[in-house]
Amino acid sequence: MHDLILYRAPRTTDAQWLLALFTSASPGREHLPHDMLELQEHLQRQQWSSHWGDGESIVERDGAPVARIWVGWGASGVRVVDLSVAPGLRGEGLGRRIMTDLCDAADAAGLALELSVNTDNAVARHLYESLDFQPCMNAGDTSGLSLTMKRAAKEETTS
Questions:
Q1: What's the pTM value of the predicted model, to 2 decimals?
Q2: Torsion angles phi and psi, residue 45, rounded to 5
Q3: Distance CA 66, CA 17 (A)
Q4: Nearest-5° angle of CA 83, CA 74, CA 56?
Q5: Is 70:52 a contact under the CB 8 Å cutoff?
Q6: 116 membership: H or E segment, kind and range
Q7: Contact in structure between 9 and 18 (CB atoms under 8 Å)
Q8: CA separation for the pair 21, 6 (Å, rounded)
Q9: SS3 label, residue 117
Q10: H or E segment and range at residue 73
Q11: E strands of 13-53, at which residues?
Q12: Is 42 helix (H, G, I), strand (E, B) or coil?
């Protein structure tokens, strides 16, 4: 995929698109009442903002939103809080492109990356493993529903 993609801050006009993306992220959510979905999405956004800062970016291709990534940048590392690709675009390599861009930026800053992934999300786990993320001890989740993965910063080599 060589399409031009753009990362930008979310706008108020993205609200309905973001709610639809939130709804599509977990099977069954589409059956919840609209007001409940809005409340859940608002609370998630509030929690992530308070814990990880304003690291939310909308990913656009050809002027239209195609994905959202939320990243927490810290002095000792980068936390990928969320990566969501629009349902109709999954499997096209957008997630890989976004994660590759993020890995390159973290490498340039000399920072390691960390994320959590649902243990039953084999597609995402395969993507992260192909980008050199390794499973690590997950002291925070004893349920076994998620897996923490880390990727060490790679040094740039000059030839």
A1: 0.88
A2: -60, -45
A3: 10
A4: 35
A5: yes
A6: strand 112-118
A7: no
A8: 18
A9: strand
A10: strand 64-73
A11: none
A12: helix
Cβ proximity of 110 and 96 under 8 Å: no
- The strand pairing partners of 72, in sequence order, are 79
Q: Which amino acid is at 55?
A: G
Q: What is the pLDDT of residues 113-131, one digit of tens each?
A: 999 999 888 999 999 999 9
d(CA 146, CA 128): 14
User: Are 56 and 9 contacting, i.e. CB atoms less than 8 angstroms apart?
Assistant: yes
Report the pLDDT value the prediction gives residue 4, as an integer from 0 to 100.
Answer: 84
Q: Which residue has the tokens 């897996």?
A: 147
Q: What is the distance between the alpha carbons of residues 12 and 33, in angstroms, rounded to a whole number?
A: 22
For the residues of 77-110, what is the DSSP string, one character each?
EEEEEEEEE-GGGTTSSHHHHHHHHHHHHHHHHT
pLDDT tens-digit series, residues 42-89: 999 999 999 999 999 999 999 999 999 999 999 889 999 999 999 999
Class of residue 124 by CB neighbours under 10 A (exposed 0-12, middle 13-18, buried 19+): middle
**Widest distance between CA atoms in the chain:** 57
Kindly state the tokens that stand for 38: 């809005």
28 Ramachandran zone, left/alpha/beta (phi>0; psi -120 to 50): left
